[in-house]
Amino acid sequence: MADVLFIILAALAGLGGGAALAGFFIKNKNAKLEEETKERVKSMLREAEITAESIKKDRILEAKEKFLKMKADFDEEMSNKKNIIITNENKVKQLQQQVSKEQELVKRKEAELDSKKENLTAQLHAVQVKKEELDRITNQRIADLEKIAGLTREEAKEQLVNMLTEEAQSKASSQIKDILDEAKLTATKQAKKIVLDTIQRTATEHAVENCVSVFNIESDDIKGKIIGREGRNIRALEAATGVEIVVDDTPEAIIISGFDPVRREIARLSLHRLVQDGRIHPARIEEVVAKTEKNIEEEIVEIGERTCIDLGIHGLHPELIKMVGRMRFRSSYGQNLLQHSREVAKLAATMAAEMGLNAKLAKRAGLLHDIGKVWPEEQELPHAILGMELAKRYKEHPEICNAIGAHHDEIEMTSMISPIVQASDAISGSRPGARREIMDSYIKRLKELEELALGFDGVNKCFAMQAGRELRILVDADHVDDQTASKLSFDISQKIEKEMQYPGQIKITVIREMRAVNYAR
């Protein structure tokens, strides 16, 4: 309202009033506004003072409450610490009392030990006196015995030691014999059971191969075509195959001679194809032989794969499969190598299964044990070591490698599969009719057996019996007693095992005969 009035007066002043009237009204308005502002400020100051007083009282109350709480906590903490100190002081007093008691106990023990020490010293002195007296009496008696026996103490001791040594050796030899007999009885029964079960479950045919093959023809008229003009066809066939072709008076047969079975088989198949075709001349012969060689290589791989499938052997390296196929055309002492290896694989697997070992590894090792014999390159290594190196090259299991290398004792056996493969090889090779040895090597082996036994003291005569599988030894009854005879048999068997190689086993029989001879005149 005042503002409106002010505006009206200003308007009037502007229309015709004087400036003094306008200034009067403005002055009155400012004074009034200043008065109102002062009143408002005073009111605000009074409110602020009231609020500040209230806040001050609240803060004082809060500070007093906090102080009282801190004082109560401090009093409680001090009370707890005081209780702990009192407890610790009580424990210290108890420990001091216990230490005092233990010190008194230690003093009593030390006094007792001193007393016992004095007693022991006295007893030791008495014992020493008695020992000196006994030594004197003993020396006196020894001197008396030496005078009576006529021997010094050292000589008597030596005789006693010799006597006890002989008695101990006699008893030990007797006990060793009993232990060996019992062990042989038990081991022989178990071994025979495993071997018999294995052989019964393995029926493998074996055939002795010769170094010749026979090619049958329908009529002798074909022989002329095979020979050719001035024998040129025969010469071409021999040059291409590396065998000897014998055409003689044998009716309806041509003999193919050669030590390599693969070459003989190539020559036989080539002749068969040439006779069927009817065209027999040097160029055709070379063509047919080359084709036959390729077919034989394929057949070798097929034989190896079929053998692995039949035996359930998987994952064999292709080169090893090829070598397994080559075994079909190799022989060892007249025994077909593939048939022998298949038989060894089956025997080894059966033995391993009976003994709770890994039959698959044993079968694999048995198949590959003679793989070194079919390596085409000439090597100076024994076939067992060469086979082991080939198996290592083609990543075979270490136990298989060891079994291959150790089946003729060229290296030490480190796996249970190795002796199983060795035993299976011996079983397969020592069957009657399985192998055929050259007469010279056979006679040489028998002589070496007899000479080895004759080298022992007390042996008078020695005879190799039953194709070298039994050695009968006659000893001097005056120099060899029963116990020595048993030991002699054992020593000879050990030396044969170390120094000789043989199939199967050799029985050593020592015969001691006592003869009493008198004459009636």
Description of the molecule:
The chain has 521 residues and is mainly alpha-helical. The protein folds into four domains: 32-149; 212-297, 2-Layer Sandwich (Ribosomal Protein S8, Chain: A, domain 1); 312-430, Hypothetical protein af1432 (Orthogonal Bundle); 438-513, ANL, C-terminal domain (GMP Synthetase, Chain A, domain 3, 2-Layer Sandwich). Helices cover 69% and strands 7% of the residues. It has helices at residues 2-15, 19-149, 153-200, 221-227, 232-241, 261-277, 282-311, 318-326, 337-354, 359-368, 383-393, 398-406, 417-429, 439-454, 482-499, and strands spanning 212-216, 244-246, 253-257, 331-332, 335-336, 459-465, 470-475, 507-512. The longest helix is centred in the N-terminal third of the chain and has 131 residues, at 19-149. Residues 337-430 form the HD domain.
End-to-end distance, in Å?
A: 193 Å
Percent range for β-strand residues: 5-15%
The low-confidence runs, each spanning 5 or more residues with pLDDT under 50, are 203-209, 432-440
Quick one: CATH superfamily of the largest domain?
A: Hypothetical protein af1432
